[in-house]
Amino acid sequence: MSLLSRDGGKSTEEPALDIVAGARLLPRITIQAFCEHSQTAQLVESAVHDRRMSKVALTTHNGGLDGAIETYRSNPTPNLIIVETSLSPEEIPSALERLAAVCDAATRLIVLGHVNDVLLYRELIRSGVSEYIVLPAAALTIVDAISELFAAEGAAPIGRTIGFISAKGGSGGSTVAHNVAWAISQHLRQDTLILDLDFAFGTAGLNYNQDPPHGIADAIGNSQKMDQTMLDRLMSKAANHVSLLTAPVVLDRPFDFEEREFEQVIELSQKSMPIVVLDIPHVWSSWVRYTIGTIDEIIIVAEPDLANLRNAKNLSDTIKALRPTESEPLLVINKVGMPRRPEIAPNEFATSVECRLIGQLGFDAATFGTAANNGQMIAEVSANNKSNEAFRAIGMHVTGRNAPERSSSRMPSLKLPSFMMKRKRA
After folding, report:
1. Which residues are registered as beta bridge partners of 356?
2. Starting from the edge strand earliest in sequence, which strands make up the sheet with 57-62, in order?
3. Tens of pLDDT along 164-216?
4. pLDDT value for 413
């Protein structure tokens, strides 16, 4: 395989390989759900934890179809109504007629039912219902249905976001992040952007031997007027297919951020790059917590000792709670086989942390030290080093090249019209 060199030397390059596209963020819409059972209300409420729903305003109410009809006799309808019904297939269409009479033409409707009936499904779709989901169902099924209705309409796929965080300071999360980004860019030939979020001590600039005049601090500091063009100007090209937003690495002021401080920059980055790698510092703050909850994949990088085990377990449990409908955190064990150090076996470590182990990196002070001092990636220092295969495997996994397809409990998906779109409000 022929690749372009870091300095841009010309050579023939193979076409980029497809990756699993990042999810589409839903726009700022209002959703109201009317449930008959508390379990269904809890199911719908759990859907709001999906990162795609971060801008959605969702409220749940009791009463099912009758409750919705009574509510909208005197209140405007939201963008989407979700109703649960236990009515028989014969009774549902007439009840929906009564609901349609009090709804705006542009309002969409998802019906949660308890009857798995294809004929009913077809009749509801013909009448203008956007989707019929058979209960019990998963929160992910509901989010996918909403996403198909709102985010898929003319929206371009957004880039896949991959965050790396160390279980303990010095465990090598940044080194792994930068080398995995390099592997993705060179082996999958995908444009990759590294966001170095460690403002005080970030190493992306050092590891790629770059000292650009602008970086992530400029993007955050100009958030009021930040747009795609400005973001592109702030990026620095570190290698073929690799761009950086480096950290300022200064201590003249503290770096305290609001919870959603990085949201705009990440969203803009996703619109211009198919892969966005976040180098997340080993701190715990509101913005780190929020950011972790909004990206596609989280990789915990740990050394095989007790302190790392404790911290990795805490991180794993917290991340799972933050992302109940999202992919669980993944684990990379770094510096395996350090001389004279008692170690926990990687598989035993992963079992204790309850994370999927996707990579092990052997302790190799000479190669990694040389790469760090030279501002190079491991593949540039030692093309045959075993770590390169590990970086490549991690990159393949987090970009979805070997991820199993999700199953869905929904009936066949169709391109559907708005709920009773020709009906005007009574």
Report:
1. 330
2. 57-62, 30-35, 80-85, 108-113, 131-134
3. 999 999 999 999 999 999 999 998 888 999 999 999 999 999 999 999 999 99
4. 31
User: What average pLDDT does the segment 281-286 reach?
Assistant: 95
Which residue, among 162, 167, 194, 189, has the nearest Cα to 178 in the 3D structure? 194
The domains found in the chain, sorted by start residue, are 30-150 (3.40.50.2300), 168-398 (3.40.50.300)
Going from the C-alpha of 172 to that of each of 168, 229, 357, 369, the distances in angstroms are 9, 33, 16, 12
Angle in degrees, CA 95, 426, 92, rounded to 5: 10
Tokens for 47, please give them: 């859907």
- Residue 136: asked if its preceding bond is cis (omega within 30°), the reply is yes
Residues 69-100 pLDDT 10s: 999 988 888 999 999 999 999 989 889 988 98
Looking at the DSSP assignment, which residues form a beta bridge with residue 194?
244, 277
The amino acid at 227: D
Return d(Cα 280, Cα 301) in angstroms, integer.
11
398-419: b or e for each residue (b if 16 or more CB lie within 10 Å)?
A: bbbbeeeeeeeebbeeeebebb
